[in-house]
């Protein structure tokens, strides 16, 4: 007999998550992973349940080929894909690395074709030349349209149709400069899905701050796969963030993802350290401030139900617990709670007497108040109030 919860899980749509931290992520200016860091990150991504890893760009150097080959030998439980330009030399370099798949990237928009001084017919010629040849060496071949979101829909559909005819297993729609918006993207993908029976992937960039929203919207519109990076690491403003998308998919209740979200905090910390990039306090999902609360109304509600002012619990990404910060906006319930943690029990009336000195101290210091500082304020204003008048 199947329980109701199991029935709901069966009905969820499966998603395919491709991580590009080791390829597009490392293209962020100033980022250079060591071979050991790459192997560690690859292993942690596999542990997190990522379906596919875009492992790197073999043609960039012999050193890159060596580390990609080493990771391929690790026999990780996910698909490994190398990235290549629409040049046989790049694909040949990928063949030597022995990854299961290769992604071949084509310039597609009018601007990108002008930069290469090529007509669109050149793209078609290369599709018919490179894809069937690559299929002889790889289990999986995907092709991508660079700057697809600035490409006319007719050309984009033509490209996808040609790629399918050539034997491509999946087609990437790349929002190369991050100009897509969720509604426009959903309309575009819906149109393509109706016109061409193709397996589609969406690759987002975050130039306008909408990468994760666009990646999620692409899934909503019927896209079969999305590519992401850990912490959103990538060129310029970065890519769609793995941790953000994984939690969004989980909270929606409509998708089945293999991502083990409780491992995300550790993974993000490893990538942040390797890339020498700090995780901002207000970074969605993994920032230090995500589970910090100061507002009296919020803290009072959180003490009754931790989901009242949090979309998910800290344990879902591997964090210990939320934190009540005592400061300018605190209420008496939070003061009682923090003092109780220091072994001091006070009633609501006594806590209310501490609000004014707490706010004065927070204003003066322009920061929150530690539990020890709050204890000293309690001793000054409740235990020894006569000292205030001296």
Question: What this model shows, in words?
Answer:
This is Pyruvate carboxyltransferase. Residues 15-265 form the Pyruvate carboxyltransferase domain. It comes from Prosthecochloris aestuarii (strain DSM 271 / SK 413). Belongs to the alpha-IPM synthase/homocitrate synthase family. This protein has an eight-stranded parallel beta barrel, surrounded by six helices. It has a two-stranded parallel ribbon with strand order 1-10. The chain is of the alpha/beta class and 390 residues long. The chain folds into two domains: 4-275, Alpha-Beta Barrel (TIM Barrel), CATH 3.20.20.70; 288-389, no CATH class. The chain has helices spanning 4-11, 35-48, 62-72, 88-97, 110-115, 120-135, 153-166, 182-195, 211-220, 242-252, 264-275, 296-304, 332-341, 348-365, 371-383, and strands at 13-14, 16-19, 52-56, 79-85, 101-107, 140-146, 170-174, 200-203, 225-228, 255-256, 292-293, 323-324. It has 15 helices and twelve strands.
Outline of this structure?
By secondary structure, the protein is of the alpha/beta class. It is built from 15 helices and twelve strands. The chain has helices at 4-11, 35-48, 62-72, 88-97, 110-115, 120-135, 153-166, 182-195, 211-220, 242-252, 264-275, 296-304, 332-341, 348-365, 371-383; strands at residues 13-14, 16-19, 52-56, 79-85, 101-107, 140-146, 170-174, 200-203, 225-228, 255-256, 292-293, 323-324.
């Amino acid at each position: 007999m199947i329980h109701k919860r199991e029935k709901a899980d069966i009905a969820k749509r499966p998603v395919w998550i491709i991580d590009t931290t080791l390829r597009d992520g490392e293209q962020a200016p100033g980022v250079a992973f060591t071979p050991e860091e790459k192997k560690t990150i690859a292993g942690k991504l596999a542990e997190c349940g990522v379906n596919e890893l875009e492992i790197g760009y073999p043609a960039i150097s012999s050193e890159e080929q060596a580390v990609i080959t080493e990771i391929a030998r690790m026999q990780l439980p996910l698909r490994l894909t190398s990235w290549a330009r629409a040049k046989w030399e790049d694909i040949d370099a990928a063949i030597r690395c022995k990854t299961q798949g290769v992604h071949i990237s084509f310039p597609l928009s009018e601007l990108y074709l002008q930069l290469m001084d090529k007509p669109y017919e050149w793209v078609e010629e290369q599709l018919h030349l490179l894809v069937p040849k690559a299929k002889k060496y790889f289990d999986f071949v995907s092709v991508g349209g660079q700057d697809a979101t600035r490409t006319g829909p007719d050309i984009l559909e033509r490209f996808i149709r040609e790629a399918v005819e050539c034997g491509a297993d999946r087609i990437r729609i790349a929002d190369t400069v991050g100009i897509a918006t969720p509604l426009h993207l959903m309309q575009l993908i819906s149109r393509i899905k109706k016109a061409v029976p193709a397996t589609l992937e969406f690759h987002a960039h975050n130039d306008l701050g909408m990468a994760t929203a666009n990646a999620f919207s692409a899934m909503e519109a019927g896209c079969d796969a999305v590519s992401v990076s850990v912490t959103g690491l990538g060129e310029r403003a970065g890519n769609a963030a793995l941790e953000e998308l994984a939690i969004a998919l989980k909270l929606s209740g409509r998708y089945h993802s293999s991502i083990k979200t409780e491992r995300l905090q550790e993974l993000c910390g490893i990538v942040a350290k390797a890339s020498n990039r700090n995780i901002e306090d207000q970074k969605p999902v993994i920032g230090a401030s995500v589970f910090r609360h100061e507002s009296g109304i919020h803290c009072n509600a959180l003490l009754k139900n931790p989901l009242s002012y949090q979309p998910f619990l800290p344990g879902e990404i591997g964090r210990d617990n939320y934190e009540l910060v005592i400061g300018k906006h605190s209420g008496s319930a939070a003061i009682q709670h923090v003092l109780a943690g220091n072994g001091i029990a006070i009633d609501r009336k006594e806590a209310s007497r501490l609000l004014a000195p707490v706010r004065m101290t927070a204003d003066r210091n322009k920061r929150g108040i530690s539990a020890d500082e709050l204890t000293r304020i309690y001793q000054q204003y409740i235990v020894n109030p006569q000292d205030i008048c001296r």
